[in-house]
């Protein structure tokens, strides 16, 4: 391998360790899956160099960049790259278009005896490959799992070898109450994660019935079009069963996530803030009288939960389902014209989905 080697943009490179030398703000907006960010320039340096480039041209911008990233700063960046390379010597570099920043990083490393390749065309070329793959893998048989809130649709999807958990990729449960304690991925990272999942699954896939937006993220247009025309199974379970699922997902598990990330005291404050804020955001749709009644019940439930009584949350969850979510979702279901292959219990719908998988050549890998 010689200094300056470039590798053509190919999804096989995602199997190798990747070093993203772009600025942190670029990395946060969307990176290649699995890449670590060890930037050549930080955000402020990149901004200054960009201004210089626009006003005085490339040569002047390069001179400024060399001056900004020099001495101890340059040494610190090199040492960070060397630490990563010591763990994974088969690493590959990339910047935005495989141009100056990755070339400079590559040259500096070569001067220290580390000869690494860089991706020709950089992030942009790899992004194009991923989008092309998303486009081509969005076709093929698709089945939706529909049902009212609390019907454990995500659990059904995740029990299947062909199941793709869109909410898991979005790190959001889809409703106003479904925000994860950690920030979700960027739109670009969401698309990249979905693309890799599509590549790893059979051509026939099962997903939960969703609106096009999951939280602040949008399901990619091509895949969304496939979902709009896909048949479904519809899970129907009694209110009491659904409340038990909701208590586990939105109360017990969500509280554990907040406590785990932020500690018991701050985690509890943020957990309550999330649920009370979500209920507050429904004010226009619920009406002030009903919202006030549910908010009072919710606050009483928080205190009961502190004493170990999770079921106290049913006092606001049950009317919220009966009076708001269930009528809204039933209206949506009635307005849709998609074919429905089966309507029944969770277990019966799962059997119907397994039969659909068999009909489409999907091998069963789990119980």
Provide an overview of this structure.
The protein is α/β, with parallel strands linked by helices and 367 residues long. The protein folds into two domains: 6-131, Rhodanese-like domain (Oxidized Rhodanese, domain 1); 142-367, no CATH class. Helices cover 57% and strands 11% of the residues. The protein contains 16 helices and twelve strands. The protein has a five-stranded parallel sheet, with helices on both faces. It is globular. The protein starts with 5 loop residues before the first strand and ends in an 8-residue tail after the last helix. The relative contact order is 0.11.
Features:
single chain, 367 residues, alpha/beta, Oxidized Rhodanese, domain 1, 5-stranded parallel β-sheet, 3-stranded parallel β-sheet, 16 helices, 12 strands
């Amino acid at each position: 391998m010689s200094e300056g080697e470039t590798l053509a943009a190919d999804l096989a490179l995602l199997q190798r360790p990747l070093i993203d030398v772009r600025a942190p703000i670029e990395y946060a907006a969307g990176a290649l899956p699995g890449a670590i960010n060890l930037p050549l320039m930080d955000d402020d340096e990149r901004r200054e160099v960009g201004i210089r480039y626009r006003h005085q041209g490339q040569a002047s911008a390069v001179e400024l960049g060399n001056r900004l990233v020099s001495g101890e700063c340059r040494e610190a960046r090199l040492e960070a790259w060397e630490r990563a390379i010591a763990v994974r010597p088969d690493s590959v570099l990339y910047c935005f278009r495989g141009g100056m920043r990755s070339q400079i990083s590559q040259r500096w490393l070569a001067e220290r005896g580390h000869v690494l390749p860089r991706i020709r065309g950089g992030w942009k070329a790899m992004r194009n490959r991923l989008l092309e793959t998303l486009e081509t893998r969005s076709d093929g048989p698709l089945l939706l799992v529909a049902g009212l809130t609390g019907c454990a649709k995500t659990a059904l999807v995740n029990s299947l070898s062909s199941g793709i958990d869109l909410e898991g990729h979005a790190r959001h449960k889809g409703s106003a109450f479904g925000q994860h304690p950690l920030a979700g991925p960027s739109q670009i990272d969401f698309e990249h994660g979905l693309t890799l999942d599509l590549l790893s699954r059979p051509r026939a896939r099962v997903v939960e019935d969703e609106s096009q937006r999951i939280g602040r993220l949008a399901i990619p247009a091509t895949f969304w079009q496939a979902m709009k025309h896909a048949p479904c199974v519809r899970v129907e379970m009694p209110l009491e069963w659904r409340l038990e699922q909701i208590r586990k997902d939105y109360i017990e598990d969500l509280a554990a996530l907040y406590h785990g990330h932020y500690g018991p005291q701050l985690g509890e404050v943020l957990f309550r803030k999330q649920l009370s804020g979500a209920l507050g955001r429904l004010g226009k749709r619920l009406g002030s009288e009903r919202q006030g009644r549910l908010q009072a019940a919710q606050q009483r439930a928080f205190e009961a939960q502190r004493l170990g009584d999770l079921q106290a949350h049913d006092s606001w969850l049950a009317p919220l389902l009966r009076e708001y979510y269930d009528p809204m979702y039933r209206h949506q279901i009635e307005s849709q014209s998609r074919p429905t292959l089966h309507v029944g219990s969770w277990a019966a719908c799962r059997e119907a989905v397994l039969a659909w998988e068999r009909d489409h050549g999907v091998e069963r890998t789990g119980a």
